[in-house]
Specification:
The protein is 37% helix and 16% strand. It is α/β, with parallel strands linked by helices. The mean pLDDT is 93.
């Protein structure tokens, strides 16, 4: 039986990936530091973890713990990371330590005992702005929006003639545009893994996740996925806080589809490459907040549009998943509305400590919100 080590395996995506891998006949070992920001302060094994999944509590920056976790392992799914664009802009050292040093520690251990396959979680954040189409039909990559423009509340990307550009799906061929420490971390993670994999003969795949949502996401972490943050607000009778004008577009992909993509990457013939994992559809943040309120039975709580900009945020980015379809066989199965309904059912029994306003104040005090 193949044993897979899932770093960050007690978390949101890791626990769902464990379920998929166990169902496929893998022996699953989870390695996680049970971060209080994600799991609370008691550092107990989460109740949602499958009984058949072994859990080792340890930190990915601890070389001895990592080597012990790797003992007897055939393949690795590397999900361990500090997540969130906003927090990465002021907790710089912890983000770099966990995401980059932690990956280096793992790769150092793998250089001593190569494995059969390595899959690493990357992020759509490395693209910065997605691709756009101009009035002449050409597809262009854009720089960050000027701060002067954002201060005027003018949110859209424009061409040289000051005409708005239309967002289009972003493929893996787009050059990275790293607009946050988190984006830099994720790009470093995927490059480190691909370089080391090539050098040591380890077939390696990097998966660029878009906006993942679903049950088990940490509701009290104000830097987790936007749907979980909105849900925590609504559960406490407060309006979701929507930055800019709410019309920025993102790609929301259900965690069940992401977990399947992880298994596909572990079994793919095509390696030493990167793949988008998204739904292939785009939605505005405002519409997502409204849809979530509806399925939660809280339509009476409309979103609060802040008309503010957070450092590191981009306007539009959504996935072109053609390469993942062709080379991994990946096809999203969970429709957005069905995924929201499942999330609402999960939320019915949850208690959320809403930290969104505290997080926004932290950013404001540091000059990271305009």
């Amino acid at each position: 039986m193949t044993r897979v080590l899932v770093t960050g395996g007690a978390g949101f995506i890791g626990s769902h990936a464990a379920d998929v891998l166990l169902a496929a006949g893998y022996e699953v070992r989870l390695f996680d530091n049970l971060s209080p920001q994600v799991h609370g302060g008691n550092r107990q094994r989460p109740a949602y973890l499958a009984d058949d999944a072994e859990l080792i509590v340890g930190d990915v920056t601890d070389s001895l713990a990592v080597e012990q976790a790797l003992s007897g392992t055939d393949v690795v799914l590397h999900l361990a990371a500090a997540v969130g664009v906003g927090q990465s802009m002021y907790d710089i050292e912890p983000y770099v330590r966990t995401n980059e040093l932690g990956t280096a520690v793992l790769l150092q251990a793998l250089s001593k005992r190569p494995i059969d396959r390595l899959v690493v979680a990357s992020s759509m954040s490395i693209y910065g702005e997605g691709l756009y189409r101009g009035r002449d039909g050409s597809v262009v990559a854009c720089d960050e929006r000027p701060l002067e423009q954002l201060r005027r509340g003018d949110w859209e990307l424009r061409d040289a003639a000051d005409r708005p550009l239309d967002p289009v799906p972003t493929p893996e061929t787009k050059q990275p545009s790293l607009s946050s420490i988190y984006a830099l971390n994720k790009y470093a993670q995927e490059r480190m893994c691909l370089i080391t994999g090539k050098a040591y003969g380890i077939p390696t795949v990097a998966l660029r996740f878009f906006n993942v949502f679903g049950p088990r996401q940490a509701l009290s972490n104000p830097y987790t996925g936007v749907l979980a943050i909105f849900a925590a607000r609504l559960l406490n009778g407060r309006p979701p806080l929507v930055f800019e004008d709410g019309r920025q577009r993102r790609d929301f992909v259900h965690v069940h589809d992401v977990a399947r993509a992880c298994r596909m990457a572990l079994e793919a013939d095509h390696t030493q490459d990167v793949f988008n994992v998204g739904s292939g559809q785009s939605r505005t943040i405002l519409s997502v907040a409204e849809d979530l309120a509806e399925v939660m039975g809280r339509r009476a709580i409309p979103p609060e549009i802040t008309r503010k900009y957070r450092a590191g945020d981009i306007r539009h980015c959504f996935a072109d998943i053609g390469k993942s379809r062709d080379l991994l066989g990946f096809e999203p199965h969970v429709a957005f509305k069905a995924g929201l309904e499942e999330l609402a059912e999960y939320l019915a029994d949850q208690i959320a400590d809403d930290q969104a306003e505290r997080a926004t104040r932290e950013l404001l005090q540091r000059g990271l919100v305009t």
